[in-house]
Amino acid sequence: MTRFCLSWSAALLTSLLGGCTSGHALEVKQVLGAGQLYTVATVDLKKDRLELHWLNPTTRAPYHTFAEVQARLAKQGQQMLFATNSGIYAPGPKPLGLHVEKGQILVGLNSARSGGNFALLPNGVFWVRGTQAGVTESQAYRHADPRPTFATQSGPLLVRKGQLHPSFSRSGTSFKVRSGVGVCRDGKVRFAISAGPVNFYSFAVFFRDTLNCPDALYLDGSIAAYATPDRNTQLAEFAGIWTVSR
C-alpha cells in the first residue's frame, strides 16, 4: 500500500479563518494511493456541520455552483470550509436519484436497472442523520428507511462491506476523474476526488485499502470538483452540493 499525505488544512484553514478553527475537525489532505493523487476531506460528524444543498430555499431555483451555495451560507452567518458535488444528475439540473435535505425527500429513490454508471447495480445511498452516516445499497436502504437528515443516491457502489463491486476489473479501461464518499472504520466520512483519471477498480481499492472505508459510493466523474477557502476546481454546473461549514 502506498500512502503519502500533504496536510495543509489545519494550518491553512487557521490562517484563512482568522486563526480559529476550534470546534471543527475537518481535515483536507492530498493523499497518494497507488501512484494517483487524491484530494481527501475527512469529516467528523460529531464536530463538523455536513449539509446537502440543491434548491435555494428563497427562490426554489437550483444552485449551480459552489459560489452560489457559499453566498447563501454567508447570508446565514456560516462560512464554507469545503464543498464537493453530490451524485449523478439529470437535466434541470435535478438529482437523478434520491435527494433528501433537512429530512425532506425532494427526489425519490430511483430503481432504474439501465442507464450508465448510476444503474451499474448495486448502487447505493449515502445518508447522514445527526452524528451517524452510512453508505447503503439502494434496496436495503428502502427496507431500512433510516429517515436521514441528508441523503444522496448514486452509483455504482464502490465498496460494500469490504467487497469491491463485482463488475470492477483491475484491467478496466475506463479512466476518468472520479469523486466518491466513504464511511470509514474510524466512524468518519471521507470524500475523495482524484487529481487525474482512474478506473473504478483503482478508485474502489483506494477507498478500501488506503482510506480504510468498508463502504463507499461513487458520486460522479469527469466534472467532479471541490472547493476550499483558497481553491475552487468547478468547471460545470451541479445538482446537489455537499458542504462543510462553520
From TrEMBL:
What is the name of the protein in this document? Phosphodiester glycosidase domain-containing protein
Q: Where are the transmembrane segments?
A: none
The taxonomic lineage of its organism, from the top, reads: Bacteria, Thermotogati, Deinococcota, Deinococci, Deinococcales
Q: Signal among the record's keywords?
A: yes
Known InterPro entries for this protein? NAGPA
Q: Which keywords has UniProt assigned to this entry?
A: Signal
The Phosphodiester glycosidase domain covers 81-221
Signal peptide stretch:
1-25
Matches recorded under Pfam families: NAGPA
